[in-house]
Amino acid sequence: QLIDKGNHRHFMAKEIYEQPIVVAQTLRGYLQRLEEKVALPIPEFDLSTIKRVTIVACGTSFYAGMVAKYWFEQFARVAVDIDVASEFRYRAPVMEEGGLMIVISQSGETADTLAALRHAKAEGQTIAAVVNVPTSTMAREADLLLPTHAGPEIGVASTKAFTCQLAVLAALAANLAKAKGRLTSEEEREIVVHLAEAPAALNDALSRDEAIEAMAGAVAGARDVLYLGRGTDYPLALEGALKLKEISYIHAEGYAAGEMKHGPIALIDENVPVIVIAPSGPLFEKTVSNMQEVQARGGKVVLISDRKGIAAAGENCLATIEMPTAHPLIAPIVYAVPVQLLAYHVAVAKGTDVDQPRNLAKSVTVE
Ligand code: G6P
């Protein structure tokens, strides 16, 4: 298979732009569009007895798992334990019988995640693996393979694998909810409709590229950047900070917006850009009030939201990235795009090696 950058300067840009297609490709395995039903690739797998879910992963894949925790709890009402693999494998985790362990990995080879998988298997857990490489070790050792169809990801910083993981995990949460009798057919139909909207919404989000490029200079000069979000946008804030530090080498932190007053607010001044991820939804007003606390202390805000005009109204607004309207279920998938593009353009502005950042490896197969 010939892999090139196409018309893009970097693999990362190409892979960001592939997301509408690869997410659609991935969802195809999990949705029956015509019947308006969700489905797993292995239909005989019985999810109804699952009492507890344990999610383990590293890096960007871990943040996909954090988003999924909100979905599993909300839709399926199943308790979820989540940890990074390097902690999980050494902390004597308690796994009840009948539990489902979900490992998430682009490569399917990350050493810590694989060790966690083997540990859980030995403890009698059923293993589901959300992996992008179907021939990988994790894919082979899992009981239930849940493939992402992102295609080869070359950029070291993960992008399209992340959104494909989210698509699979949303579908899995819906399947789990259904198996537990918690979804009416109308609710199931709505989930299918909203998930199916994701590729078009991703396309819309990509149309903000130029606007994001134009404001990247305002972030490129910073020494520290803070990302804030609530609910499923909290892991997205963590992912945004990770992307930025990975490829631009700017120190960045992601924080739960409501937790900001317990620490990071002390850092706020005019030199620390604060990226606020705030799609409209039940937590919108709460996040905006945290944003205003930042602005009141002289902090410069970049608001990523579909609520028109809101940031322009506030003082100390560096920029607004106006997003297309997206249903809350797919918002984490759609809002991944501006977060990735911002990191990308800041890194390009700084002249770093975007696809091969220093000290990082695409696949970490040693502990
Ligand atoms: C490395 C990569 C990241 C990736 C992480 C987990 O740190 O640089 O992009 O998110 O490993 O990799 P995995 O293949 O398990 O998803």
Automatic annotation (TrEMBL):
GO biological process: amino sugar biosynthetic process; carbohydrate metabolic process; fructose 6-phosphate metabolic process; protein N-linked glycosylation; UDP-N-acetylglucosamine metabolic process
Membrane-spanning residues: none
All residue ranges annotated as the SIS domain in the record: 41-182, 215-357
Subcellular location(s) per record: Cytoplasm
Lineage top rank: taxon: Bacteria
Predominant location: cytoplasm
E.C. number: 2.6.1.16
Keywords tagged on the record: Aminotransferase, Cytoplasm, Glutamine amidotransferase, Repeat, Transferase
Catalytic activity field: D-fructose 6-phosphate + L-glutamine = D-glucosamine 6-phosphate + L-glutamate
Assembly, per entry: Homodimer.
Function description: Catalyzes the first step in hexosamine metabolism, converting fructose-6P into glucosamine-6P using glutamine as a nitrogen source.
Name assigned to this protein: Glutamine--fructose-6-phosphate aminotransferase [isomerizing]
Species in which this protein is naturally found: Sphingomonas turrisvirgatae
Residues of the full protein shown: 241 to 607 of 607
